[in-house]
């Protein structure tokens, strides 16, 4: 009777998928019985190449929902033993071509073309990576060795250089590379930490790059109570993370609720359909739900900075522990184990509005420390005691062999590039956040001078050059270069550490009124260790911090261009000025929304690393000084606490208790 039953109804997509699988099996059967002709092979490969090109170049597939189906069809057809190697090689070739195209654009070779940037191809590239992963998972070791050739090496090099502006490549390549080098078809890697909160840099290039494939493949929950997706993103991005997660540890329920800085739209590019609510009010709603569910132990895990962490501990009823990030604050009880100066004890105790003592912790930056916190609760879920300290991950801590092997492999690939000596410095190039975020710093001066130098085009009858000035957000200077190390040699690796984000230096036309607003914004939150304090070249600015915010610019002058002998002239509100600035600021990063909203003209420029490295190579010996470009009156000499900033922190923690 079963044989007489009608087959289940198939949709069009299901029928095509079954047909693809049958075609793949038939091809293998045909080729196992006779040697295929060159014409047969050519036609099969041309058809597959046409499908792959359609998937990469189409601007409508994603919106119509066809992309996922086409991926399934290509996986089925490419699963044929006859076609698998060709499909893998061709996919790698397409990705290499796209990476090269993006590289040339951001080198400035094609930046003048209005349609030069292949947005659709970049977004669709995730589908090619998905197909590669599926095929490699079903591919035995010899197949991987066959495809792991010059294509993969070239792609790896390009992905490294494009990793900041195009993070989708890095995210996809990490998984793919494991499959290319691992004997385990699953490409399994160490299990990630149990839970993560979304941070400000997670959305640097928008939601799409985060969604595909990172958020679809990650095994641990992503948490944020104060992010709300609207519009088309409500049903996709909006359901890809949770406000909280309930864990069972030792038979006890522990609620972990996440939060993300409400300043993220100023620091990243989440897009108009991703809204960030106030952390405290959003957290309170979710904590109330946890308490109603009988969860008496609540941990807030966030990425909003130490100031907000304390506010959460003080104002959110029901939160027992706060684990923070974003400001990379170093807390420690007792003598510090390394060079970092503690901003306070670990844990940092905050008295809540309802009289409880709430421990707040952070674990600095760079993975240098492992956060360790032990919390003892009573039967009602109240904190009785909290102790701990960050653990310095020095040479006494064994390195993970799998991660170490991967790091060593990357180091081999980058050795020749990173060891290249560009020039030397005769002086200490101070890129400390305690300098560049609070006052003029000489490394900031060097970067800004390089920005202007790169834009020199020669004089005409009216101007000695079309641009004379640049500005650079101090938070973009990430570290210093020591003149006493390697006889002052400056390597490519040094510059990558200083400018790790891979942005461009762009040319923008701004009114004087916009420039004045930008400089006012740069000191609006002065003293909070934020990144918007401006380093300059071709400007002279004076700030009076005794004045109220938005009225602190005492004077602002710019080097004239329409003059035979350059001199500094006051910036006038209605006059138009050409200025070089980082692409990060062009898009409103660090809160410079006035630039994104009011710029009159924008031309994309060269990669920041290329500009500064070329400048140093030409100079060979550099010795930038602090020259009085930025003068500050009525200010304390430095930050209130040494908070070293890199907006990316790994928070690893332990919560224990006794009954």
Automatic annotation (TrEMBL):
Keywords: Hydrolase, Meiosis, Metal-binding, Nucleotide-binding, Signal
Taxonomy of the source species: Eukaryota, Metazoa, Chordata, Craniata, Vertebrata
Residue intervals of the 5'-Nucleotidase C-terminal domain: 430-596
A GO MF term: 5'-nucleotidase activity
Keyword Zinc-finger: no
Catalytic reaction list: a ribonucleoside 5'-phosphate + H2O = a ribonucleoside + phosphate
Source domain of life: Eukaryota
EC number of this enzyme: 3.1.3.5
Keyword Membrane in record: no
Family listed: Belongs to the MEI4L family. Belongs to the 5'-nucleotidase family.
Name of the protein described by the UniProt record: 5'-nucleotidase
Entry-linked SUPFAM superfamilies: 5'-nucleotidase (syn. UDP-sugar hydrolase), C-terminal domain, Metallo-dependent phosphatases
Organism of provenance: Gasterosteus aculeatus aculeatus (three-spined stickleback)
GO CC term, one of those recorded: plasma membrane
């Amino acid at each position: 009777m079963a044989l007489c039953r009608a087959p289940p109804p198939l949709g069009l997509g299901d029928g095509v998928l079954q047909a693809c699988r049958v075609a793949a099996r038939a091809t293998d059967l045909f080729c196992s019985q006779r040697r295929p002709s060159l014409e047969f092979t050519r036609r099969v490969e041309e058809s597959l190449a046409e499908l792959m090109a359609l998937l990469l170049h189409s601007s409508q597939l994603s919106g119509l929902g066809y992309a996922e189906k086409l991926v399934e069809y290509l996986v089925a057809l490419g699963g044929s033993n006859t076609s698998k190697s060709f499909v893998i090689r061709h996919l790698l070739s397409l990705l290499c071509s796209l990476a090269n195209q993006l590289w040339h654009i951001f080198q400035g070779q094609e930046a003048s073309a209005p349609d030069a940037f292949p947005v659709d191809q970049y977004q669709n590239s995730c589908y090619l990576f998905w197909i590669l992963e599926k095929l490699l998972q079903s591919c035995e070791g010899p197949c991987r060795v066959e495809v792991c050739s010059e294509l993969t090496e070239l792609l790896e090099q390009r992905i490294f250089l494009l990793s900041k502006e195009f993070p989708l490549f890095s995210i996809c390549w990490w998984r793919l590379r494991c499959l290319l080098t691992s004997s385990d078809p699953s490409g399994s890697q160490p299990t990630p930490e149990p839970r993560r909160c979304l941070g400000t840099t997670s959305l640097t290039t928008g939601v799409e790059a985060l969604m595909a494939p990172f958020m679809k493949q990650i095994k641990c929950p992503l948490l944020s109570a104060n992010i709300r997706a609207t519009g088309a993103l409500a049903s996709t991005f909006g359901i890809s993370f949770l406000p909280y997660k309930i864990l069972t540890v030792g038979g006890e329920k522990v609620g972990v609720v996440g939060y993300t800085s409400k300043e993220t739209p100023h620091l990243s590019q989440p897009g108009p359909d991703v809204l960030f609510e106030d952390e405290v009010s959003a957290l309170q709603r979710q904590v109330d739900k946890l308490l109603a569910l009988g969860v008496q132990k609540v941990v807030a895990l966030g990425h909003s900075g130490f100031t907000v962490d304390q506010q959460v501990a003080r104002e959110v009823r029901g939160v027992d522990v706060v684990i923070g990030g974003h400001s990379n604050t170093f807390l420690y009880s007792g003598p510090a184990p390394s060079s970092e100066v503690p901003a306070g004890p670990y844990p940092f105790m905050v008295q809540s509005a309802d009289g409880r003592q709430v421990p707040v912790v952070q674990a600095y930056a760079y993975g240098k420390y492992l956060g360790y916190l032990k919390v003892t609760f009573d039967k009602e879920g109240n904190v009785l005691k909290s102790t701990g300290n960050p653990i310095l991950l020095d040479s006494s801590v064994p390195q993970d062999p799998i991660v170490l092997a991967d790091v060593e492999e990357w180091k081999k690939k980058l050795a020749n590039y990173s060891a290249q000596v560009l020039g030397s410095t005769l002086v200490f190039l101070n890129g400390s956040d305690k300098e560049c975020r609070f006052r003029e710093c000489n490394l900031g001066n060097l970067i800004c001078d390089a920005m202007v130098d790169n834009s020199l085009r020669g004089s005409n009858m009216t101007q000695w050059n079309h641009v004379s000035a640049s500005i650079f957000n101090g938070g973009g200077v990430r570290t210093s270069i020591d003149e006493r190390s390697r006889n002052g040699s400056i390597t490519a690796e040094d510059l990558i550490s200083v400018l790790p984000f891979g942005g461009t230096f762009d040319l923008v036309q701004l009114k004087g009124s916009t420039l004045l607003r930008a400089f006012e914004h740069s000191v609006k939150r002065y003293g909070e260790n934020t990144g918007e304090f401006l380093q300059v070249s071709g400007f002279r600015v004076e700030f009076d911090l005794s004045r109220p915010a938005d009225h602190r610019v005492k004077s602002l002058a710019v080097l004239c261009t329409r003059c035979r002998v350059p001199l500094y002239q006051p910036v006038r509100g209605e006059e138009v000025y050409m200025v070089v600035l980082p692409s990060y600021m062009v898009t409103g990063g660090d809160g410079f929304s006035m630039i994104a909203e009011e710029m009159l003209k924008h031309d994309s420029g060269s990669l920041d690393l290329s500009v500064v490295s070329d400048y140093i190579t030409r100079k060979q010996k550099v010795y930038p000084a602090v020259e009085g470009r930025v003068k500050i009156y009525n200010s304390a000499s430095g930050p209130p606490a040494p908070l070293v900033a890199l907006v990316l922190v790994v928070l690893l923690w332990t919560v224990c208790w006794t009954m």
